[in-house]
Amino acid sequence: MLPISTAMSAIVRRTCRTWSPAAPLTRWLTTTPALHQSRETEAQPAAAATKDAPSMPGWTPMSLRVGLITRKKGMTTMFMPDGTRVPATVLYVDSNQVSMHVQRDAPSQDEAPYMALQVAASDARESAVSAPVRGHLSRAGLGPKRVIKEFRVTPDAMLPIGTQLSAAHFVPGQDVDVRAITRGKGFAGVMKRHNFAGGNASHGASLAHRTPGSVGNNQDPGRVWPGKRMPGRMGGHYRTVQNVRVLRIDVKNELIFVKGQVPGPDGGVVFVQDALKSMVKNAYFMYRKGVTPKGELLDPAKGPAQYLPRGLMDLPFPAGTRDLAAQLPDVVEVGP
């Protein structure tokens, strides 16, 4: 194995693999989480390495990072280091930039104030974007964009307006939540829409093979309850798939490879965020309890690695930007 110099903090698994056009397969080297330094700088004392570097806030269990707006490019097959064949969906990070800060006061003393970042994506012609949207984006110094989405964040994860986000925002091995509009199926029956078994297909069916059967009640209440599973319009609404594993990050082409399926057709818009359940909430409640899932006491000196799952050392914070991506290898993926 040939060592490579890294300019990124230890945000990936110890066993992640990287590719470079001019180098063979190499292992991803980890450094101090708070420093963006090369291998030569790593040998120097920490005080000397950070003497002139500006202090940057780090990820904490209380932090909530911004998400990304991507486009679904299709599905492919990936082979894991143990030889397992898994399906993967390719997501393209399409020109994501911060377009606005959104802040609102808390409605009551028991609630936190609302704070979010508005992200605009997908460059477009001026004629393809309405005048109000063009004016809104021009005030932020941005050109016309097709998609605008608001992501709630914590105060320490705020970013300057105009910041360019990259696929390096996520780390191979972490879980994310993906949200998109599902494919519209039109008006569908109960067997397709709700997976009903259907009626008897042989004796005495009397043209009731695919009907839902009885849907009413007795004289009291004498009506059909709201929400009853019946035929109707299927698809065409937002669906969130939680805890989707990130398998590979292609920094050069701004691609994110995630395990399994993602809602929506090829070319559809997909919103990607840190997994709310398996990462954000788990880290928060672990911090509140003060112990790991194994019952071990948390040590503040160990940093954020003890709050993250599956050997993750840290996360790009407050976000993975284009400047950070320029210092990374072309491709990083999960290793053995």
Automatic annotation (TrEMBL):
Example of a GO cellular component annotation carried by this entry: mitochondrial large ribosomal subunit
InterPro entries: Ribosomal_uL3, Ribosomal_uL3_bac/org-type, Ribosomal_uL3_CS, Transl_B-barrel_sf
Keyword Mitochondrion: yes
Span list, region Disordered: 36-56, 201-223
Primary location recorded for the protein, binned into one broad class: mitochondrion
UniProt keyword annotations, A-Z: Mitochondrion, Ribonucleoprotein, Ribosomal protein, Transit peptide
A molecular function (GO) term: structural constituent of ribosome
Signal peptide: none
Subcellular location(s) of the protein: Mitochondrion
Biased segments, Low complexity type: 43-53
GO BP terms: translation
Pfam families registered for this protein in UniProt: Ribosomal_L3
KW Transport (keyword) present: no
Family (UniProt): Belongs to the universal ribosomal protein uL3 family.
HAMAP family per record: Ribosomal_uL3_B (MF_01325_B)
Protein name: Large ribosomal subunit protein uL3m
Source species: Malassezia globosa (strain ATCC MYA-4612 / CBS 7966)
